[in-house]
Amino acid sequence: MTDATQYQVRDQVAVITLAQPPINGLGLELRKSILANLERACADDSVEAIVLASSSKLFCGGADISEFATGGATTAPILPQVCEALEGAPKLVIAAINGMALGGGCELTLACDYRIALPAAKLGLPEVNLGLLPGAGGTQRMPRIAGVPLALEMITSGRPYSVKQLAETGVIDRIHTGPEEFLDAAIAYAQELLSSSAAKRSCADKRVDTSELPENYFTEFRAAIAPKTRGLFAPERCIQAVEAACKLPLKEGIQKEAELFMECLASPQARAQQHLFFAERTVSKIPGINPKATPVREINKVAVIGSGTMGGGIAMNFLNVGIPTVILDLNDETLERGVSVIRKNYESTAKKGRLTTEQVEQRMALLESTTDYADLADVDLVIEAVFERMDIKQTVFKTLDQICKPGAILATNTSTLDVNEIARVTSRPQDVLGLHFFSPANVMRLLEIVRADQTGNDVLLTTVKLAQVIKKVPVVSGVCWGFIGNRATEPYFRESMAAILEGATPAQIDKVHTDFGMPMGLPSVVDLAGIDIVVQTRADRKAQTIDLDPTYGAISHKLFELGRYGQKSGRGMYIYEGRNKREDPEVMQLAAQAAEELGVEQRTLSDQEILERTIYPIINECARILEEGIAYRSSDIDIVLAYGFGFPVYRGGPMQYADEIGLDTVLAGLNKYRESLRNGEIWFKPAPLLVKLAAEGKKFKDYSPSGPCG
């Protein structure tokens, strides 16, 4: 008998304990073991009830996702068979839910007759986040037990629910709050059920109650979630599966669920979303650094230089996890305003019920403010978030070098500047690196960690682990202009501006991008960021831009010269009236004027050309980033673009997207524009790595670069 589960009998109750830490992933061995011990308990005449429990801190994290690629998920016994066996067992089966029960783990509990849980436990069906739907009866049993509204919301959102919420709908039968051990309480609950002659409860005997649903309930639900699920394949199949539960007997409904599950599994979106799932779990692995042999530094106090929007947002990340934080600004009024904004952000969260008033005050009590650098002498980490100019940042770091204690980590939040140049003005370059937060810093999950030439291994590893503490996804980058994200998306900006110069409207480009899956099109992004910021950020790159191609960013420069900075000034690519925007014919007049001055012929651009010209160069630049060793893995690049720049998650990031459509397709598209466009030789020359891998019939994920800093 495998040790994937533990088996014991106590007082006529068989206990089958999942024992595959840390998450009890429902791989083949665990499925076999559950089924074998279930059959053992059913065959034992001395056993009157069965408790399904866990030896880990959580109950079960769900299916082993890696088995979808290897075929293990379809090797008998498959998870639906295990759930069917639990439901069909002749003896009472009680799920003892001690922690998270997600995906297949939640489906296991739904197949049991009764469910007892600890107050902190949660149940969820997050398969939609992997481009899938629950495939072991979850879409059929949950509506029968909890009702359609909760089932639909739970399955299409992927959000876990507390046992308190689920107890109100009948999913959880008892919440254990007593002093006795949870397993003892579960066994006692099983005996209580037996003594009261409690009946078995099979979902096969239940019909979904639709009596109180409005006639157009499913249509209205689709419309309600449409803004959040735009472009996604799986949510609609989730809805269809729940609809089937309302119409079909359990057995036929599970068959329909299986058909819909396979549709999802075979889709490019499922491959893309699962790619990001694994990519996120890989980013913290740094080649060449043994985490067990590399001591990390203690971070007990943090300082942030700059109290603006970015500085305040950065500070909140540390306050949220209980780390005392000092925020410094040289202007008292600015500092007071920055602290006030932090408080308002917390109070706004409290009004939404996500924080208590006490928690707001606890976090604010951890915040100090100062105008004196001397107050930073005892911090373990300082993050500079001042104006994006090298001379200003170097001045800050010279001061920090003098003030901060030995061993303190000095980090810059720069989004484009050379971290090596910043490190050189200090006497401790081994303690310097980049921590590039994305705005709003207290919301965005991505953190680019920029490894300078002399950054110490312990410093790098410390910040990677700290990023996880503050609930960020850390991606390590080497030093170059823009690091991974801004460098990769520079061609996206360039070609979008070129398309406007050549005759495309901002609205056409926006539509092409949002149809592709971007949350906003590039012209709208530029207006939101500020055309002044966009132009100034590229001011020191004249040799790489306008000197190479005088048409580079011509329309953005025209708007900048006119003081049309976007939303902040009321006019940019569009005209803004409050939150509403409308097209501005003057933009196209300016484009026509600039085109005539620069000798650019205006024409009609197809949506396909705009898509290829703005997306393929991103892929091409990513290939260079990979080949140069700026990123460790192609999947790291995908995380940056998907989590920080809005590349649609259902396409998996630019590298996964290229792998999906074929590198030869991307290469052919680049060569087409290289030959047909006026400056094609400058901007569309394929990266050597792209050419090489396409010729070999390989994918980006097959390539292993040396990683940041070579």
UniProtKB/TrEMBL annotation:
Pfam families, A to Z: 3HCDH, 3HCDH_N, ECH_1
Catalytic activity: a (3S)-3-hydroxyacyl-CoA + NAD(+) = a 3-oxoacyl-CoA + NADH + H(+)
Major location category of this protein: other
UniProt keyword list: Fatty acid metabolism, Isomerase, Lipid degradation, Lipid metabolism, Lyase, Multifunctional enzyme, NAD, Oxidoreductase, Peroxisome
Keyword Protein transport: no
Signal peptide (UniProt feature, chain positions): none
3-hydroxyacyl-CoA dehydrogenase C-terminal domain: residues covered: 482-576, 610-698
Keyword Lipid metabolism annotated: yes
Pathway in which this enzyme or protein is active: Lipid metabolism; fatty acid beta-oxidation
MF-aspect GO terms: (3S)-3-hydroxyacyl-CoA dehydrogenase (NAD+) activity; enoyl-CoA hydratase activity; isomerase activity; NAD+ binding
GO-annotated biological processes: fatty acid beta-oxidation
Gene3D superfamilies, alphabetized: 1.10.1040.50, 2-enoyl-CoA Hydratase, Chain A, domain 1 (3.90.226.10), NAD(P)-binding Rossmann-like Domain (3.40.50.720)
Domain 3-hydroxyacyl-CoA dehydrogenase NAD binding: 301-477
UniProt-listed SUPFAM superfamilies: 6-phosphogluconate dehydrogenase C-terminal domain-like, ClpP/crotonase, NAD(P)-binding Rossmann-fold domains
Compartment(s): Peroxisome
The family this protein is said to belong to: In the N-terminal section; belongs to the enoyl-CoA hydratase/isomerase family. Belongs to the enoyl-CoA hydratase/isomerase family.
Entry protein name: 3-hydroxyacyl-CoA dehydrogenase
Organism, as annotated: Geothermobacter hydrogeniphilus
Native organism taxonomy: Bacteria, Pseudomonadati, Thermodesulfobacteriota, Desulfuromonadia, Desulfuromonadales
